[in-house]
Amino acid sequence: MNLKPILIAAALGLSAALAGCTSMGPAHIFSSDYGSVKDAGYQLPSIPISKVPRQYHRQIVSFETKEKPGTIIVDTREKFLYFVMEDGKAMRYGIGVGREGFEWAGTARIAMKREWPTWTPPRAMIGRQPELAKWAGGMPPGTSNPLGARALYLFNKGGDTGYRLHGTPEWNSIGKAMSSGCIRLINQDIIDLYNRAEVGAKVIVKR
Predict the structure, then answer these.
(1) Residue 111 φ/ψ, nearest 5 degrees
(2) In what order do the strands lie in the sheet with 150-156?
(3) pLDDT per residue as tens digits for the range 118-155
(4) Which residues are catalytic?
(5) Cβ(18)–Cβ(94) under 8 Å?
(6) Considering 25, 55, 89, 194, which has the largest number of Cβ atoms within 10 A of its Cβ?
(7) Cα dihedral: 140, 51, 113, 156 (round 10)
(8) For this UniProt entry, which residues form the secretion signal (predicted)?
(9) What architecture (CATH level 2) is domain 28-206?
(10) Shortest CA distance to 79 belongs to which of 106, 103, 113?
């Protein structure tokens, strides 16, 4: 009996099976979701996602925590935001965080959600950057607005923390410490998170 054709067929079958397995991996990395998006009359530009390190692309990862699904956990050291899901999984997003002197940590809750929010620079920020005084009454929504396409407003027992989870037009700041303390995500990612997160959700920010 000539075993060569059988062995070749088996090898091809194994190769196809392995190819099927590996093709499942990238299905959990949403690198193709950063194209141009029309949203509420605004045209978000596409993101050159190949220039963003792969670990900061939106993806589903294994994530063990005692926190219930729907909780948001922010790891400012690793520059990741996790939206806790069922079955030991989380949706992970790359983030930009507060620069030196503007870091923060703690527990809060989402008190409000806003699409295409108005941005009002805090008085202290205007003091540091007087050119922002023209926006003291609020900067209108738009693709150049620092809060981007969505904002989640964080409150604790003392009220408004002043911190937000929000979008940003500055995609190249993801994975870096450049903000004034808020947690920023690529606009396409904050839209995804906004659609998942609920008002009242617990947010844990770790340093």
Answers:
(1) -95, -30
(2) 59-62, 89-94, 80-84, 72-75, 202-206, 106-115, 150-156, 159-168, 183-186
(3) 988 778 787 888 877 877 778 889 998 999 999 999 99
(4) 166, 182
(5) no
(6) 194
(7) -110
(8) 1-19
(9) Beta Barrel (2.40)
(10) 103
DSSP code, position 187: H
DSSP β-ladder status, 202-206 and 106-115: antiparallel
When comparing pLDDT for 91 and 7, which is higher?
91
Distances (CA, A) of 88 to 22, 61, 133: 21, 9, 46
101 exposure class (CB count in 10 Å sphere: 0-12, 13-18, 19+): exposed
The domain limits of the chain are: 28-206
pLDDT of residue 51: 97
CA-based radius of gyration for the chain = 21
pTM for the whole structure: 0.82
Average pLDDT over residues 100-126: 85
